[in-house]
C-alpha cells in the first residue's frame, strides 16, 4: 500500500469553513469587536451542507463562517482602528486614575476615529446596489431619530439620524417619489420609487419609547453607524441627481417668508434650520434655476416612452404625482403633522398648520382658499363654509387609490371605512375585501350605486348564489359516493322484491356538460395516480397550499358576512 | 477682658489665645472670616464717627469693660432684638455646650457679635459713664458670665462684682400685682427692661429706643450711615503710578525655571518619539459626504458576485392596518388560540386591533424589539439561495392518452352474483367464457352462468375453499379446487358431451406404477358416492394446507402451493393424465406465496415473500429472480405474451416487471390505498386489473409493444367500486373474462360482481 496516511477532516468541505471562535482568534478580536466587524463588513455565517463533516464529526451546534470571508476581514484597516481604540481606552483610564487632567484632555483630542466610506463603496460597488439595500437603513434611522436624547446612544447619532431622515424626506418631496402609504398599528409605512427601486420604510409613531431591557443597543448602534454613513452618501447623490444643493438649503424665497414669520427666537440658529427643513413646508434651493430644468425634462419624455403599456403606466404615475395639485390643506393640531405634511407635499398639495404647533406654517386657519381642513376630533368648534372638514385617513386612502376619493365617508364623526393595505395585490382566488372592490370600481371610473343598501343586498344574493355553486361542486366531489348509494338502493330494491310493485320510474335527465366535467375530473384523477412519487409529493403540497388558501378566503368571507348581518340587524333594531 | 470675665473663660491672656488659634489652620481660616466680618462692621461704623478709639473689637486691650457690657446688652438682646440676631443667639447656645478649646474662639465670636450689634448702647453707656457719670447701676459688674440666672434663684445674691463682692438682689421682688400696677401707672413701662444679671430695671432712653426701632426695621444703627457710598476700587484697569506692593521682585523671576525646562524637554522628547501627536486637524475640505460612486467602474469585485442581499421584510397586509376590515379581526376563539400558541407557531406576530380614529393609535410596544430582531437576522442568519419551485401543478400531471381512446375496458357494474354466505376467496372463468366458478369460506363451490348471474350448481366441499382454477384447456371442462390440505378435481359437466367425455378420459388415465413414488407425500384417490354425484372426481391429498392451485396452459399439469417456512416441500406439480406428483425444488428459498406457469414456454414462476423466481422446467434451473421491492407479495399474474409480470403486494403496491428489461420493477403503481389482494391480465385485450382491500378494482391499460425498444405504456383507465368493505377486507380476487373486456371481482361481502 504505502503512501502517506490520509488524515480525516483535512480536505473537502472542512477546509472551506471556520468556526466563529477560531475566526475570532485568527483575527485577534474580542467578541464584541468581531461582531461589530461582521456587521460593518456584511459578513454572515454560512450553513454547510454536511454539518457533521465540517464539524469534524461532532454534532455540537456551531456557527460557521466561510474561511474566505475571514481572510477577507484580515486585511480590513478598521481592525487596526479597533485595536487603537482599545489602546486609547486603556490610556485614558490610566490618565484618569492618575488624575492627569491635561493628559486626559490631550488623549481625548486624539481619540481614534474611523470612517466607513471605503466599506460602503466595497459593499455597494454601484449606486443602485446601495439604493436596493436602503430599506433597513431608513427604518433604523427613523427609529433612532425618535429616541430621547438621554442614555441609550450618543446625542450626535440621534441628531445625525434626524438630519439624514429629514434630508431623505425632503428629497422624496422634491422628487415626488412617494407611491404608497399605509397606517399600521406599528407605525406608518411609506413606499417610494427612487430610480426604479421600490423602497419601503416604517416610521414609528411619535411617542417616547419604553426601552426594552433585552435588546442589545450596541448592536443597533453599530448598524446605525453603518446606515448613517450609507444614507448620507445616498442623500448626497440623490440631491445632486435633482440638481439640489447638498446639504439642503431652503429656497431663498421660502427662507425669507419663514424668517418674517418667525422673528422670535425659536431655537439655536443651527437647530432652527433643521427644524425649518423638517417642517417640509418649503421647497429646496436648486443649483440651476428650476425653469430651465423643467424644459430639459420635457425634452426627454418622448424618448422614454416606448410601449403603449408603459405609456399608460407613466400617465397614471404622472396623474398620481399631481394628485393634490391645487388643494390647500390645513392641519389641526391633533393630527400627526410630520407625516401628513410629508405626504401632502409629496403629491403637490399645499399644507399649513397652526403657528404654535411647529415652525414653518405658511398660512393661517382663516385663509379663505383652504380646501381641506384635516381634523381628528369628533367635531370641530368653528367651521368655515367653503372647506371640507375631513379625517386624516382620507389623505392616505386617496394616495393608495391614486384618485381623489369622495369626501363623504371621511367627514367628522363618521365611522371611517376600513384602511386597506396598498401592498396586498390579490391574485385570482384570493380574498378581496368589499371595500377594495369598491375602490377598484371608482378607479375604473364607475360611479357607486346610489342606494348602497340595495347594492349590498345584491351582493349578498350573489354571494348566496356562489355558495350554491360551491355546494354543487361539493356534490360533484361526492359523485364517487353516489355509486355506493345506488348500490344501497339496489339492495333495498332487492329486499322489496318480494312485494312486487311497479312504481313509475323517474326520468334521469343527464346534463351533457356535467357529464363531460365528470369525465374530465376522472381523467385527471387517473392521471394523478400515474404521477411519479416525487412529483406527486410536490403536487400534493401545492394543492394543499391552494386548498388552504381557499379555505382561508372562505373563512374571511363567512366572517364578513356574519359581521354585515349583525350590523344590519343592529340597524333595523335602532330603526324600530 | 478674658481675665476680667472670670470663671467660665480660660484664664489665658489673649495673646495665648491667639497662639491657639494659629495652631489649627482650618479654624483659623474660619476665624479670619469672622474677623473680616468684624472689620467690615467696623469699617462701616467708622464713618459714623461717634466712636473714637474703638477700632477693633477683637483687640483685647481696648474692650476692658466689654464683659460687663456684654452682660447688660445680652439681656436686652434676648428680649427686644431676638429677631435681629437669631443666628448669633443660636451660636451662643451651641457655644455654651461645646468643649473647651472651641470655647475660646466662640466666646470671642460672641463677644464680637454682641459688640458689633450693640455698639450703640455701649457708646451710650460709655457716654453716660464719662459725661454724666450719674448712673450707679452701671458700675455694677456681674462676673458670673453667661449662665442661666436661675442658678442664683435660691441665693440672696445674683453674682459677684469685679472686686469679688456679692451683688445682692434688690430687696423687694416685684410680684404680679406690682407688675400690673407698674404697667398701668408707669408711662415708661414699655421702655423698661429687666436686667437679669443685676436684677434691676433699666429705662431705655429715647436714642436707645430709636436704635432698637431702626434695627428692628433692618436699617443700620447709625442714622447718618450711608449704605451706598461710592466704591473705591483697589485694582482697576487704570495703570497706577505706584505699585500695589512695593516688594522687590524675587530672584527666581529673573532666572529661567529648571523645572519648566525639564518639563519642556520631556514634551519635546515625547513629540520626537511620536508619543505625543499634534492635535488632529479635521479635514472637512470635501465635507463629510461626497459623491462616493462618482467613479463608478463596472469592474465589480469578485466577492460581490457571490453577495446575497438580505431578503426584505415582508410587506404588511390588511391585518396590520390601524382600521382593518372587520373580517380580519380575531374572534374570541382565534384570540384564545393565538394566546395559547407558541410565539414561533403564530401566523401573525401581533393581534389585529381596530381604532376608530388615528389619534387613538398608541405606540407599538414591540417596535424596538422587531428592529433588533431584524438586525440579528442580518448579521447572524446564514443566507442561502433557495430555488423556489414555481410550477403550475397542472404541468406536473403526466400527459396520458385519454381513457376514451383506449376503450374497450370495463366501466360500469352490470351484474352481481349473490348466493354465497361467506367471503368469496377465489373465482375463475371457464375458457369458453360461459361459466364462472367461485369458492367461498362457507364451504361451497358455485358455478354461475356469466350472462344471467344464475347459480347453476352448488357443490358442498366441506371446508373453506382457498382457491379455484378452471382448466384453461378448452377441450376439457375441469375445475381444480383447493381446500384445507386437499385439492379436488371437479367435473361440473357444464359443456358439450364431447368436452365432458374428453375430460372423463383425462381423469380416467391410469396411475403410473406407484413404485417410485410410493412413499411420496401425496395420495391420489377417486371419489365415490355422493361426492361423485356432485361432480368431484379426484382427490389429491397433500401433507399440508394448500393455498393455491394453478393450471398449466395445456391443462394437464397442475401446481399446488403449500406455504411453509421450514420445509422445502412447498410446491407440488401434479400431472393429471398420469396421476403423478413431484416436488420440483430441493431447497427452501422462502415462503412461497403463489405460482404460475408461463403461458407458452416451459417456465415456472414462483413468487416468494420478497421476490419472484423464474425456473426453466426443461433445463431445471433458475433463469431469473425478480426483486419486487415490496414487503410481501400477495398475488402475481403473467402476461399472456409471457414477457411481463405484475405482482400485487400487501403494502399497497402493484409492480410491473418487464422480463426483458430488468429484474427490478419497470413501474411501481401505488394506486391503492390498502393491501392489494389480486391481480389479473386480460387474455387478449391490453388490460390488467388489481383488487384491493380498499374495495376498489383498478383497471389499467397496459399496452405491450412488440418492439423491444419501446417500453410498455401503462394508463389507469377506470376505478371500479362496488364491493362493500366487511371486516376490513374489500375485494379478494379479480379475474377477466377470456374473450370480452369484462372483469369479475369477488369480495368479502360474499358477492361477485361483473363490470362491463
From TrEMBL, chain A:
Single biological process term from Gene Ontology: maturation of 5.8S rRNA from tricistronic rRNA transcript (SSU-rRNA, 5.8S rRNA, LSU-rRNA)
GO molecular function terms noted in the UniProt entry: ribonucleoprotein complex binding; RNA binding
SUPFAM superfamilies: BRCT domain
Compositionally biased region (Acidic residues): 451-486
Similarity comment: family membership: Belongs to the pescadillo family.
This protein's encoding gene: pes
Residue span of region Disordered: 443-520, 549-576
The name this protein goes by in its record: Pescadillo homolog
Residue spans of biased composition, Basic and acidic residues class: 487-497, 507-520
Alphabetical UniProt keywords: Coiled coil, Nucleus, Ribosome biogenesis, rRNA processing
Residues annotated as domain BRCT: 319-412
Subunit structure: Component of the PeBoW complex, composed of BOP1, PES1 and WDR12. Within the PeBoW complex BOP1 interacts directly with PES1 and WDR12. The PeBoW complex also associates with the 66S pre-ribosome. Component of the PeBoW complex, composed of BOP1, PES1 and WDR12. The complex is held together by BOP1, which interacts with PES1 via its N-terminal domain and with WDR12 via a high-affinity interaction between the seven-bladed beta-propeller domains of the 2 proteins. The PeBoW complex associates with the 66S pre-ribosome. The PeBoW complex also associates with DDX27, PES1 interacts directly with DDX27. Interacts with IRS1 and UBTF. May interact with MAP1B.
Protein role: Component of the PeBoW complex, which is required for maturation of 28S and 5.8S ribosomal RNAs and formation of the 60S ribosome.
Organism: Scophthalmus maximus (Turbot)
Pfam families: BRCT_2 (PF16589), Pescadillo_N (PF06732)
From TrEMBL, chain B:
Keyword list, A-Z: Nucleus, Repeat, Ribosome biogenesis, rRNA processing, WD repeat
Annotated Gene3D superfamilies: YVTN repeat-like/Quinoprotein amine dehydrogenase
Transmembrane segments: none
Key word Repeat present: yes
SUPFAM superfamilies membership: WD40 repeat-like
Biased composition (Basic residues): 18-28
Biological processes per GO annotation: maturation of 5.8S rRNA from tricistronic rRNA transcript (SSU-rRNA, 5.8S rRNA, LSU-rRNA); maturation of LSU-rRNA from tricistronic rRNA transcript (SSU-rRNA, 5.8S rRNA, LSU-rRNA)
Polar residues: compositionally biased ranges: 1-13
PROSITE patterns, A to Z: WD_REPEATS_1 (PS00678), WD_REPEATS_2 (PS50082), WD_REPEATS_REGION (PS50294)
Span of domain BOP1 N-terminal: 152-410
Biased composition (Acidic residues): 51-62, 71-94
Pfam family, one: BOP1NT
Main localization, broad class: nucleus
HAMAP family: BOP1
Name of the protein this chain belongs to: Ribosome biogenesis protein BOP1
Organism of origin: Scophthalmus maximus
Source species taxonomy: Eukaryota, Metazoa, Chordata, Craniata, Vertebrata
Amino acid at each position: 500500500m504505502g503512501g502517506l496516511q490520509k488524515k480525516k477532516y483535512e480536505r473537502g468541505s472542512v477546509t472551506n469553513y471556520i468556526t466563529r471562535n477560531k475566526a475570532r482568534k485568527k483575527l485577534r478580536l474580542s467578541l464584541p469587536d468581531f461582531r461589530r466587524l461582521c456587521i460593518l463588513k456584511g459578513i454572515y455565517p454560512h450553513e454547510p451542507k454536511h454539518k457533521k463533516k465540517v464539524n469534524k464529526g461532532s454534532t455540537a451546534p456551531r456557527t460557521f463562517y466561510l474561511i474566505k470571508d475571514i481572510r477577507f476581514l484580515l486585511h480590513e484597516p478598521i481592525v487596526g482602528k479597533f485595536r487603537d481604540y482599545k489602546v486609547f481606552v486603556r490610556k485614558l483610564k490610566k490618565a484618569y486614575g492618575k488624575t492627569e487632567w491635561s493628559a486626559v484632555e490631550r488623549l481625548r483630542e486624539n481619540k481614534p476615529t474611523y470612517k466607513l466610506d471605503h466599506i460602503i463603496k466595497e459593499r455597494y460597488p454601484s449606486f443602485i446596489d446601495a439604493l436596493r439595500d436602503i430599506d433597513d437603513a431608513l427604518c433604523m434611522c427613523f427609529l433612532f431619530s425618535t429616541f430621547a436624547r438621554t442614555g441609550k446612544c450618543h446625542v450626535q447619532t440621534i441628531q445625525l439620524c434626524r438630519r439624514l431622515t429629514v434630508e431623505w424626506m425632503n428629497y422624496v418631496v422634491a422628487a415626488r417619489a412617494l407611491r404608497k402609504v399605509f397606517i399600521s398599528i406599528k407605525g406608518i409605512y411609506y413606499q417610494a420609487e427612487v430610480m426604479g427601486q421600490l423602497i419601503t420604510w416604517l416610521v414609528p409613531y411619535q411617542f417616547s419609547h419604553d426601552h426594552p431591557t433585552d435588546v442589545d443597543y450596541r448592536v443597533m448602534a453599530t448598524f446605525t453607524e453603518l446606515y448613517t454613513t450609507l444614507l448620507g452618501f445616498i442623500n448626497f447623490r440623490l440631491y445632486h441627481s435633482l440638481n439640489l444643493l447638498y446639504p439642503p438649503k431652503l429656497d431663498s424665497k421660502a427662507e425669507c417668508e419663514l424668517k418674517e414669520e418667525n422673528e422670535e427666537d425659536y431655537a439655536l440658529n443651527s437647530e432652527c434650520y433643521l427644524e425649518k427643513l423638517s417642517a417640509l413646508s418649503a421647497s429646496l434651493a436648486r443649483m440651476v434655476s428650476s425653469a430651465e430644468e423643467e424644459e430639459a425634462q420635457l425634452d426627454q419624455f418622448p424618448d422614454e416612452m416606448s410601449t403603449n403599456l408603459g405609456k399608460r403606466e407613466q400617465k397614471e404615475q404622472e396623474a398620481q404625482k399631481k394628485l393634490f395639485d391645487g388643494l390647500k390643506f390645513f392641519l389641526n393640531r391633533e393630527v400627526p403633522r410630520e407625516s401628513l405634511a410629508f405626504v401632502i407635499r409629496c403629491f403637490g398639495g399645499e399644507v399649513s398648520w397652526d403657528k404654535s404647533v411647529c415652525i414653518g406654517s405658511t398660512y393661517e386657519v382663516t385663509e379663505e382658499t383652504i380646501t381641506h381642513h384635516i381634523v381628528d376630533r369628533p367635531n370641530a368648534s368653528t367651521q368655515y363654509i367653503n372647506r371640507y372638514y375631513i379625517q386624516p385617513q382620507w389623505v392616505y386612502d386617496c394616495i393608495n387609490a391614486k384618485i381623489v376619493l369622495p369626501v363623504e365617508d371621511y367627514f367628522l364623526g363618521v365611522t371611517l371605512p376600513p384602511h386597506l393595505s396598498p401592498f396586498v395585490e390579490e391574485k385570482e382566488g384570493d380574498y378581496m375585501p368589499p371595500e377594495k372592490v369598491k375602490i377598484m370600481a371608482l378607479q375604473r371610473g364607475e360611479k357607486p350605486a346610489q342606494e348602497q343598501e340595495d347594492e349590498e343586498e345584491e351582493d349578498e344574493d350573489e354571494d348566496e348564489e356562489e355558495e350554491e355553486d360551491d355546494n354543487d361542486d361539493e356534490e360533484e366531489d361526492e359523485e364517487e359516493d353516489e355509486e355506493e348509494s345506488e348500490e344501497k338502493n339496489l339492495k333495498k330494491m332487492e329486499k322489496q322484491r318480494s312485494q312486487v310493485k311497479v312504481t313509475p320510474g323517474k326520468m334521469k335527465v343527464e346534463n351533457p356538460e356535467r357529464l363531460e366535467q365528470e369525465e374530465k375530473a376522472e381523467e385527471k384523477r387517473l392521471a394523478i395516480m400515474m404521477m411519479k412519487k416525487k412529483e406527486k409529493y410536490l403536487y400534493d403540497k401545492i394543492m394543499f397550499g391552494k386548498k388552504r388558501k381557499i379555505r382561508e378566503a372562505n373563512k374571511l368571507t363567512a366572517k364578513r358576512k356574519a359581521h354585515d348581518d349583525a350590523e344590519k340587524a343592529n340597524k333595523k333594531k335602532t330603526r324600530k | 477682658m478674658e481675665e476680667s470675665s472670670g470663671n467660665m473663660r480660660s484664664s489665658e491672656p489673649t495673646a495665648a489665645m491667639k497662639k491657639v488659634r494659629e495652631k489649627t489652620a482650618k479654624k483659623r481660616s474660619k476665624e479670619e472670616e469672622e474677623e473680616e466680618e468684624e472689620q467690615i462692621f467696623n469699617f462701616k461704623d467708622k464713618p459714623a464717627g461717634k466712636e473714637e478709639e474703638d477700632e477693633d473689637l477683637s483687640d483685647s486691650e481696648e474692650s476692658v469693660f466689654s464683659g460687663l457690657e456684654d452682660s447688660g446688652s445680652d439681656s436686652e438682646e434676648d428680649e427686644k432684638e431676638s429677631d435681629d440676631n437669631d443666628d448669633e443667639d443660636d451660636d451662643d447656645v451651641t457655644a455654651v455646650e461645646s468643649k473647651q478649646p472651641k470655647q475660646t474662639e466662640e466666646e470671642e465670636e460672641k463677644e464680637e457679635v454682641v459688640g458689633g450689634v450693640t455698639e450703640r448702647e455701649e457708646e451710650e453707656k460709655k457716654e453716660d459713664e464719662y459725661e454724666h457719670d450719674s448712673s450707679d447701676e452701671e458700675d455694677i459688674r456681674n462676673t458670673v458670665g453667661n449662665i442661666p440666672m436661675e442658678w442664683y434663684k435660691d441665693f440672696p445674691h445674683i453674682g459677684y462684682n469685679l472686686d469679688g463682692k456679692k451683688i445682692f438682689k434688690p430687696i423687694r421682688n416685684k410680684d404680679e400685682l406690682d407688675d400690673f400696677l407698674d404697667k398701668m401707672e408707669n408711662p415708661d413701662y414699655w421702655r423698661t427692661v429687666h436686667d437679669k444679671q443685676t436684677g434691676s430695671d433699666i429705662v431705655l432712653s429715647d436714642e436707645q429706643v430709636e436704635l432698637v426701632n431702626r434695627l428692628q426695621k433692618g436699617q443700620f444703627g447709625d442714622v447718618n450711615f450711608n449704605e451706598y457710598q461710592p466704591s473705591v476700587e483697589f485694582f482697576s484697569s487704570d495703570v497706577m503710578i505706584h505699585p500695589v506692593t512695593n516688594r522687590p521682585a524675587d530672584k527666581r523671576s529673573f532666572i529661567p525655571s529648571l523645572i519648566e525646562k525639564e518639563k519642556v524637554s520631556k514634551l519635546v522628547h515625547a513629540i520626537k518619539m511620536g508619543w505625543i501627536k499634534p492635535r488632529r486637524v479635521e479635514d472637512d475640505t470635501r465635507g463629510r459626504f461626497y459623491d462616493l460612486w462618482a467613479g463608478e467602474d463596472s469592474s465589480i469585485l469578485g466577492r460581490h458576485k457571490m453577495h446575497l442581499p438580505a431578503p426584505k421584510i415582508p410587506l404588511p397586509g390588511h391585518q396590520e392596518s390601524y382600521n382593518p376590515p372587520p373580517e380580519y379581526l380575531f374572534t374570541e376563539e382565534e384570540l384564545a388560540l393565538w394566546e395559547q400558541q407558541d410565539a414561533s407557531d403564530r401566523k401573525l406576530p401581533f393581534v389585529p386591533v381596530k381604532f376608530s380614529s388615528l389619534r387613538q393609535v398608541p405606540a407599538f410596544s414591540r417596535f424596538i424589539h422587531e428592529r433588533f430582531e431584524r438586525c440579528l437576522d442580518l448579521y447572524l442568519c446564514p443566507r442561502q439561495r433557495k430555488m423556489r419551485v414555481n410550477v403550475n401543478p397542472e404541468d406536473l400531471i403526466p400527459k396520458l392518452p385519454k381513457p376514451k381512446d383506449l376503450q374497450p375496458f370495463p366501466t360500469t357494474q352490470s351484474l352481481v352474483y349473490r348466493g354465497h354466505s361467506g367471503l368469496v376467496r377465489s373465482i375463475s372463468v371457464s375458457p369458453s367464457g360461459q361459466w364462472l366458478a367461485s369458492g367461498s369460506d362457507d364451504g361451497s363451490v358455485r358455478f354461475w352462468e356469466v350472462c344471467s348471474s344464475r347459480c347453476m350448481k352448488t357443490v358442498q366441499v366441506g371446508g373453506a375453499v382457498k382457491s379455484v382454477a378452471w382448466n384453461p384447456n378448452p377441450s376439457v371442462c375441469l375445475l381444480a379446487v383447493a381446500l384445507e390440505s386437499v385439492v379436488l378435481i371437479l367435473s361440473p359437466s357444464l359443456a358439450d358431451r364431447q368436452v365432458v367425455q374428453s375430460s372423463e378420459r383425462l381423469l380416467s388415465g391410469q396411475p403410473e406404477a406407484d413404485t417410485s413414488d410410493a412413499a411420496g407425500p401425496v395420495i391420489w384417490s377417486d371419489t365415490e358416492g355422493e361426492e361423485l354425484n356432485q361432480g368431484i372426481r379426484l382427490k389429491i391429498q397433500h401433507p399440508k394446507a394448500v393455498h393455491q392451485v394453478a393450471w398449466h396452459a395445456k391443462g394437464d399439469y397442475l401446481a399446488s402451493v403449500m406455504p411453509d417456512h421450514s420445509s422445502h416441500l412447498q410446491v407440488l406439480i401434479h400431472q393429471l393424465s398420469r396421476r403423478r406428483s413431484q416436488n420440483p425444488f430441493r431447497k427452501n428459498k422462502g415462503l412461497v406465496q403463489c405460482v404460475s406457469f408461463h403461458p407458452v414456454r416451459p417456465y415456472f414462476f414462483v413468487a416468494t415473500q420478497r421476490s419472484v423466481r423464474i425456473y426453466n422446467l426443461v433445463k431445471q434451473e433458475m433463469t431469473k429472480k425478480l426483486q419486487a421491492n415490496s414487503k410481501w407479495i400477495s398475488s402475481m399474474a403473467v402476461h399472456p405474451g409471457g414477457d411481463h409480470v405484475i405482482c400485487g403486494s400487501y403494502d399497497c403496491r402493484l409492480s410491473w416487471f418487464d422480463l426483458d428489461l430488468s429484474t427490478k420493477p419497470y413501474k411501481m403503481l401505488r394506486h391503492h390505498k390498502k393491501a392489494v389482494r389480486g391481480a389479473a391480465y386480460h387474455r387478449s385485450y391490453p388490460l390488467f386489473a388489481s383488487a384491493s382491500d380498499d374495495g376498489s378494482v383498478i383497471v389499467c391499460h397496459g399496452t405491450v409493444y412488440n418492439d423491444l425498444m419501446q417500453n410498455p405504456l401503462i394508463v389507469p383507465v377506470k376505478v371500479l367500486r362496488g364491493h362493500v368493505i366487511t371486516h376490513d377486507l374489500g375485494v379478494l380476487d379479480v379475474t377477466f373474462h377470456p374473450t370480452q373486456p369484462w372483469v369479475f371481482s369477488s369480495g368479502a361481502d360474499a358477492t361477485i360482481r361483473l363490470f362491463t
